[in-house]
Write a structure and sequence with these properties.
Outer membrane phospholipase (ompla), Chain C, 264 residues, single chain, disordered N terminus, alpha+beta
Length: 264
C-alpha cells in the first residue's frame, strides 16, 4: 500500500474511532465546556511499539458527543453509554490501533514482520467522582485477530490558568499472549535475521504511562489542543530482544491540532 493510501485509510478510521490512548472521553479538550471539537493536526509517535525512532502522522481531530449516549474522539475512541448513571457510565467501546509498515521499521524492514492496522471492539466502565476526576477500565479484542487488551486509567483536570485548560491521565495497559507476540515476539526466522534469540512472550502488563493534555483558546471558536505522553514498557514487552536490541522501553508520544469549537 502506498504512503498516501496508508495515510488516507488511517485518517478515515481515526476520525471515527480514535488514534491515541484507549480511554473514555475525559481529556482536557473534553473539559472545554462540553464543546464539540473538529479540526486537524499531527501525531508524533514511535515508529513501532518499542521503537527508538519516531514518525509523524497527519490526522483529523474529533471530540464530539452525539446525543446523550455516543461519543467520538480521536483521543479516546468511540463509546456508547448503556448505563447513563449520575456517576457510573459503561457500555460499548471501539478504537483504532496503529500497525507498522516496512517503511516504519526502517533497517528492520524485511527482517521483522510488518503489521496492518486493526480495529478493536469491546466494552468500558467508568466512574465520575465529579466533573474533573474519574477512573475507568476498558477491555477490547481485535475485530480481525486474536489480540485482547485491557486499559485502566485515572484522569484529573488541573486548575485552569485563565482560559487555558489542562489535565493529567495515568494509564496501565495489559495484552494477552497473541497481542504480546504480535507486537513484541520474534519467530525463529526473524530472530536469525537479527542475530538474537527467538521470543514468544505470554500475556501480561504491557506498559504504564502518564499523559498531559491541554487546550489553548485562540478566540471564540478556535483553539489549539495538544497532548504529551510518556509510557514505560513492562514485563515481556520490555524484555523483548526487539526492544532491548533495536528500540527502547521509554516511549514518548505527542500531538497537536487546530480545532473549531461548536457549542453543544
Amino acid at each position: 500500500m502506498s504512503a498516501f493510501a496508508r495515510w488516507l485509510t488511517a485518517s478515515a478510521c481515526a476520525a471515527l474511532l480514535g488514534v491515541a490512548a484507549p480511554c473514555h472521553a475525559d481529556d482536557a479538550a473534553a473539559a472545554s465546556a462540553d464543546d464539540n471539537l473538529l479540526g486537524a493536526g499531527f501525531i508524533r509517535l514511535p515508529a513501532w511499539q518499542g521503537s527508538r525512532a519516531h514518525r509523524d502522522q497527519f490526522a483529523p481531530y474529533v471530540q464530539a458527543k452525539l446525543g446523550d449516549r455516543i461519543t467520538l474522539s480521536t483521543d479516546d475512541g468511540a463509546t456508547l453509554d448503556l448505563i447513563m448513571g449520575q456517576h457510573l457510565h459503561g457500555g460499548l467501546y471501539g478504537n483504532y490501533q496503529w500497525g507498522r509498515s516496512h517503511e516504519d521499521l526502517g533497517r528492520l524492514g524485511g527482517k521483522v514482520t510488518s503489521l496492518s492496522p486493526r480495529l478493536n471492539a469491546g466494552g468500558y466502565v467508568e466512574y465520575d467522582f465529579n466533573e474533573a476526576q474519574n477512573v475507568g477500565i476498558n477491555a477490547a479484542h481485535d475485530t480481525l485477530g486474536a489480540g485482547a487488551y485491557v486499559n485502566a486509567y485515572a484522569f484529573s483536570a488541573l486548575p485552569p490558568l485563565g482560559h487555558y485548560q489542562h489535565g493529567l491521565q495515568l494509564q496501565w495497559q495489559w495484552m494477552n499472549g497473541p497481542a504480546m507476540r504480535r507486537f513484541f515476539g520474534l519467530s525463529a526466522v526473524e530472530a536469525a535475521a537479527l542475530g538474537v534469540a527467538p521470543w514468544q512472550p505470554g500475556a501480561g502488563g504491557q506498559q504504564v504511562g502518564l499523559e498531559y493534555d491541554g487546550l489553548i483558546p485562540l478566540g471564540r471558536h478556535l483553539a489549539t489542543v495538544f497532548s504529551l505522553s510518556y509510557a514505560r514498557l513492562l514485563g515481556n514487552a520490555e524484555d523483548s530482544p526487539l526492544v532491548r536490541g533495536f528500540g527502547t522501553a521509554d516511549q514518548f508520544t505527542g500531538s497537536m491540532a487546530l480545532v473549531y469549537r461548536f457549542a453543544p
